[in-house]
Amino acid sequence: MLEVYYFIVITFSISLMIDLIYGELPTKIHPVVIVGKIIDLFKNSFIKYHNKWSGFLTTFFTIVFSCLILLVVMLISSVNDYLFIILYSIILSSTYSIKMLLSTAKNIENDLKTDLDKARQSVSYLVSRDTDELTESFIVSATIESMTENITDSYVAPIFYFIIISIIFMIFNINYYIILLFIPFIYRISNTLDAMLGYTTDELINIGFIPAKLDDILNYIPSRISGLFVVLSAYLLRYNGKNAYKIMKRDAKNCPSPNSGYTMAPTAGALDIQLVKKETYILGDNTNEINVSDISKAIKLTSLTIALFTIFILIIMTIVQVII
């Protein structure tokens, strides 16, 4: 088997190609979909306990059961090195989503140019707010908010943890690659738990408490790193980089989530627009009236943010490899 550095670079590169070219795996075999079914299984078992222990138990058993399935699959594939590398890369690609993140926003932009009602329907799949009466400007805002908020969840966070542990493996020459794959996989489980249970409705307020808090903790550092890369990308694209940093510092904490504002706010600042979720938050100044073309600008900003972060982590890994 390859040494740690080369194994990580190869599998990570293959996973990127899979995601950027192919996109999401078929629903029937997508690990996140399977995890969702496991979450439902344990949710139905533990929701009857009307306290926060229900959320802890659901989280614990979902992680353990999902990781056991992953372990069995990877052990079976280890009979052949090439099969192991390919399957490893495929599963790694399922822990993040770049193509879907960008293409979804682009599709809504196209819908806005032809059919407002269709755009309302499309954006309803992304946000929890009522979209039936949203005007064009609010649809644009919701699209940019959703895309930029998910820079952290959909890419930076799982890869951040994967690379941090990878570097530790490199330093100590640990080649337990299956354990390494657990890192982004567990992050994706946590994020899925939050997406499914992390609400304050009467039904979910108890069982969703632990998943929501765990997701907040895991995203705390990655969201702030993402925000800095959004600012850097704004400078490189000759958007308003100075204002991106200013608005991030000023408005990032306006959101109910402790993390989501750190990518949305600098985007608003970079584009000199205001992102608004009624009765929840306002990010940025209304310097320019928000319009459909701002989605394309936000897509470019998001794309460069992801690219710069990817280059950065590969450089850091290479420096560590050279030093050791």
Q: Would you mind describing this structure in some detail?
A:
The structure is a single chain. This protein has 324 residues and is an all-alpha fold. It has one domain. Helix content is 73%, strand content 2%. The chain is built from 12 helices and 2 strands; from the N terminus they run αααααααααααββα. The protein has helices at residues 4-22, 31-46, 53-77, 81-93, 99-114, 116-124, 136-171, 177-197, 209-236, 241-251, 261-271, 293-323; strands spanning 275-277, 281-283. The protein has a two-stranded antiparallel sheet. A hairpin with a 3-residue loop joins β1 and β2 (281-283). The longest helix has 36 residues, at 136-171. The radius of gyration is 20 Å and the shape is globular.
| Low-pLDDT segments | none
| Radius of gyration of CA atoms, rounded to a whole number | 20 Å
Helix content: over 70%
**Shape call:** globular
The ordered string of helix (H) and strand (E) elements is HHHHHHHHHHHEEH
**Approximately what portion of the residues adopt beta-strand conformation?**
under 5%
How many domains comprise the coordinates?
A: 1
Cα distance, first to last residue? 19 Å
Mean of residue pLDDT values = 95
| Order of strands in the sheet with most strands | 1-2
Got a strand count?
2
Count of runs of 4 or more consecutive helical residues: 12
Major sheet description: 2 strands, antiparallel
Helix and strand composition category: mainly alpha
